[in-house]
Give the backbone structure.
Amino acid sequence: MAKTLYDKIWDDHLVHEADDGTCLLYIDRHLIHEVTSPQAFEGLRMAGRKVRAPGKTLAVVDHNVPTTDRSKGIDDPESKLQVDTLARNAAEFGVDYFDENDERQGIVHIIGPEQGFTLPGTTIVCGDSHTSTHGAFGALAHGIGTSEVEHVLATQTLIQKKAKNMRVTVNGELPDGVGAKDIILAIIGEIGTAGGTGHVIEFAGDAIRALSVEGRMTVCNMTIEGGARAGLIAPDEKTFAYLKDTPRAPKGADWDAAVAYWETLYSDDDATFDVEITLDAANLPPTVTWGTSPEDVIPISGSVPDPAGVEDAGRKQALERSLKYMGLAPGTKITDVPIDRVFIGSCTNGRIEDLRQVAEIAKGRQVAETVNAMVVPGSGLVKAQAEAEGIDKVLTEAGFDWREPGCSMCLAMNADKLEPEERCASTSNRNFEGRQGRGGRTHLVSPSMAAAAAIAGRFIDVRELD
Amino acid sequence: MDKFDKLTGVGAPLPMINIDTDMIIPKQFLKTIERTGLGKHLFDEMRFNQDGSEKEDFVLNKPAYRNAEILVAGENFGCGSSREHAPWALKDFGIRCVIATSFADIFYNNCFKNGILPIALPQEDVDKLMDDAERGANATITVDLEKQEISGPDGGTIKFDLDPFKRHCLLEGLDDIGLSLEKKDNIDTFEAKQADTKPWL
Ligand code: SF4
């Protein structure tokens, strides 16, 4: 029978299926960070259980770490306790761990691929919703809660029911200045934040194939913002080239055998999807979110919507609440909106390619005087690579603040946060109320649009920057 | 895990769509290494002013709803992060059941691991329960998991659907991990086969 890519990976990891369709799925790779794991290890300890396969688990600190020099330790006592707890748990249960001063440290969804821990055709979980990122490699990857983290640690499996298949096809060629982030924002705008609920989304079409592996990660990263737990892109030559020679990728004959298997990972021609959506890349504009849900997207040429014309009472109320929170009047042109802060980083856009795009815009230009712009590389390796290419110089000369790697102001658990009513152009993935700091106002954009906004002091079409 | 069988309590109306996990429990409270103690921060930014005083108009601050055990809300409840701190905070506050037209997937699953029953119902049923909830302490709602039935203060009942396995685990308060460990032989067999066919893993 014809199968989708999701069907293939699923079938390949089925340990047990009960009569009612409840399945036990084998988990090949488990990533762990400090925020969602302490209670899971504590649960194991209380039940006298061990980690079944410590070698299939990799731990890193990212959410809590300061992005300033941390060689002398972490000041905030609560953050320090969480970080120390992970170090202790990793040592006690025999799990590999990258601490805050390890060059390989970084955002969990950036280091997995970098290390070759993320591989096509595997099942990957992490107590973090943006685990969907790893789907860019053709891995079935999704976020889980802490109780499930404990379950995976103890059993290397997860209790699951199979999701439905959805395919989003993006055909055609992207216009200049439009990238992966604009694609995924447009998709979320199209399907809504609950549009993918209960589905695994496969992204296909020549515009997706044309993306770099980094760009594909950006797309899969935000699948969760469209409600789907996992996104998938069939692996190809670009995927293999990205992984080759990474520290944990297979070597020698194993590599050849792995590639031979990975080449079978695609949806069969006659496979059927429960839902199909098609978009034309040629029509996609640089996109900005105006509100407090990732589905609140408008093109850079657009204006903030007016709730007056909205019929659905729930929507209308949500719109009004968003406008009030964001401090925006209906009908305001988005290019007339000035900004205070810029955040470039996160597991959506904290990779080397993203920083190169920012540097390209920043080169020979200056950040507006009214703007504070920070750049936070996604990992120590990204930071080192950027510094080797001189990107840090270009950025600091242009007035950007160059920081140590971590999640930083994507969720503001460390000291990097917005003040109430500060407005930020951010390359991260969530614009919820308070996400980047209580009362802070987040607009999601691509890295080049964030860089352009930093320079103009307001939102601007990156193609119109002088 | 805590059992859930039948609950009679006050339902608090929260007629908003897309209530995300950052609203339920903002990140500054995720630095804990415990599962308990988060109730006082539930809905922090909606419930409290910057100086820590209560916002009078927020539903859970109103006298009639301080002891609410049920939340009635709009679509896509719990969207956003995977943080289990969201159900931990709800539970610590005393909420044992959330009723909405739809839920985000990870949040929905997380509820069951913590003895909280999330119930998805069609809009018209949620509207009806929202009206009931507006009447506060004078109108308690009863949720019967065994019968998969909600009864409102006026005697009418609403049936709800639930995955039989999830229902069973909640009714019995079963430990998932224990259940899965009973399949140890299946896991061993799987691993042996995988070591053979995919030695690179
Ligand atoms: S960068 Fe942001 S979205 Fe990504 S893992 Fe960190 S906090 Fe989560």
Observations:
- Chain A touches chain B through 73 residues (CB under 8 Å).
- The mean pLDDT of chain A is 97.
